[in-house]
Amino acid sequence: MLQLKNGLLALFLLLQLQHAQAQTGADAALRIGFTSLQQELSINPCLSDRVVADLYGPAAIPVAEQERKKWPNNLCQNPLTVQALANWHFSSSALLANTERPVVIANLIRERNKILADCSSVSCISQQLPRMLEWARINLDRTPIATAENRPVSVISKPLSHPKISLRGLQLPLDQQAKVCPGGEESLEFYTTSILVPGAALAVARCAHQGKASMWLLEKDAKTSAWKTILFSPDDDGFFILPNTREEHPTLFLKKRVPAGELITVYEFNGNTRYQRKISFVVSPDEFGMLHAFDLSFIP
Fold first, then answer.
1. pLDDT in tens, 209-221
2. What is the DSSP letter of 199?
3. What integer best gives the mean pLDDT of the chain?
4. Taking the CA atoms of the chain, what radius of gyration do you get in angstroms?
5. Helix (H) or strand (E) holding 153
6. 122-142 and 79-98 are packed helices; what angle lies between their axes, rounded to 10 degrees?
7. Does the predicted model carry a pTM greater than 0.70?
8. Could you give the CA distance from residue 245 to residue 288 in angstroms, rounded to a whole number?
9. I need a surface site. Which of 73, 151, 239, 260 has the fewest CB within 10 A?
10. Beta-strand (E) ranges in 160-258?
């Protein structure tokens, strides 16, 4: 989904292993270089109080202590296990941020994280991590590097020159149009879309001359000639797709800037009806420039 830089994962793992062999206890793992303490701790929960205080001030120490309580008491006294755990978090968060199959990968990561969370001992965690790391690394190797031809493109394309002709048969008002931009056709502007669906025509509608963004994704069935709304977003229109997708209705990514990075909400097409939100996560780069996914949330 987003750019993955060659060699950074191998470099990180090598540096981490060398550092783990030279250190003991809670200082065994290096910091990754995120601006957020919570993001640092989600990669390595065993950052020492010294490192935490140096980076974020003494007030951050209780936050780190609380994060360590989620793990077995003696985890941070086992540097090789700490290192393997940090490598798993690093690899899996990079995989989710860069994969072209975010919902599938998110579910597989959740299953593996649940296995770790159910461990009550360091030995249990140590036994699980090798297989998990191998899975993450194999999938990272298979994740294509984003090229100019495969970078996300906006769902909204060019304005429709003659919407009355192009959208013949479209019934107004649209779903919830009265709440967002009341009025008839004059209150809307129409666009072509970068989405191509076999056997169907698609278009985008937005409110004309409004302060906040909104978007309707419309689809015309080739058999019935009826237009239907397959996605309505009342507050955001920053939707993207990956080109060269193999899905009939491609996965949609809604992007929004937040203090911790970029919030990504993933939409997938549900059968033959409409798009639904599936997961969301925040994307943020490490100091090497590799993107990672944090705060993964599954949307019912």
1. 766 689 999 999 8
2. T
3. 86
4. 23
5. strand 153-154
6. 30
7. yes
8. 28
9. 73
10. 188-193, 200-207, 215-221, 227-233, 239-241, 252-258
